[in-house]
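Collaborator request, handled under Task 6.
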Amino acid sequence: MNQDYEGFDALTAKVLSMDAAEIRQRCASQLIEHPSNEHMIQALAERMLADYQDTLKSGRAHCVMIVPVGPVGQYDIIAEYCVREKLSLDRLTLIAMDEYLTAAGDWISIDDPLSFRAHLDRHLLEKLPADLRPAELVVPDPTDLGYIPRLIEEKGGVDICYAGVGITGHLAFNDPVPGRDDPIWFSQLPTRVVQLTPETRLINSVTASGGNTLRIPFQAVTVGMAEILSSRLLRIWMNRDWQRAAIRRLLFGPVTGAFPASLVQTHSNVTIDAVASVLDSAEPGLR
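C-alpha cells returned to the collaborator:
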C-alpha cells in the first residue's frame, strides 16, 4: 500500500492490507459475523433486550444504556417484543448518543427527518404503552451539558454502550480534533457541542439525504468518549461496506485521537458485531 499520504504510518498501512481470515483469527473471541444487515439488526434488538434483562438479573436495580440511532431498525423490533411479551422497560435509562444542532446551537426541529430524538420517539416510545416505556430517555442537551455525566454518576455508571463507527472513526459524534491526537486527552472528552468534519457531513449525506450535503447540519451535541469508555460493556455494530477500513483500524491500528474508534482497544470488555462483507478487503480498486 502506498504510504505517501498523510496518516499512512507503517502500522496503519499494514492493518489496512489485512485479509478477512486474519481478522477472524486474531479477534475470534470478540467478533460476531452476520450474513446480512437484516440479520444484524435482529441480533442487535435481541442483544439489547437480553443485556437489559441480564443486567437486572445480575443485581443491578436499574440498567443504563448509551444507544445510537444508526444502525436503524432495532427499536421497532424491541417495541414489538415488549408489547407481545409484556416486558416493561421501566428499569431502563436510555441515553441517546447525539443530536444535530441548528446554526444557533439549538436542537434541530423534532419535525426534521434527520432528528435522532424524533426517530427514537417514533420507533420506540410511541409504539409502547406508558407502563412499558423506559424510565427515561435522555438526549444530550446543549443548554445543560453536565446533565448526562451527573445522571450517569447518580445511576452508578453505564452498563452497556452500543455504537456504530463513522468514516472518521467517530463513536457518537466524537470526530477527530485537528492537532489533538493524544489518546489520553481524547478519551477524557465529555458530553459537548462539536463541529462536524467535512468527511462526516459527506458520508451522512450519502446515507441519509441522497447525497444532499447542503442538508446536513454543521454541528451537533454528543456524549463524550469519557462517557462511552466508562461503560462496563462496549458493543460495536458495523454494517456498511465503507467500514472495511474502519474495522481494521479500530481493532489493530494505532491507538490515537486521529481515529477515535481505535480507543476501544483500551477498553477491557468489547464485542464487535459486523455484517460479513465489512471484513472484505479494504484495498483500493476502481469500479
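The cover message to the collaborator said: "The radius of gyration is 18 Å. The chain has one domain: 18-279. Please let us know whether this matches your experimental observations."
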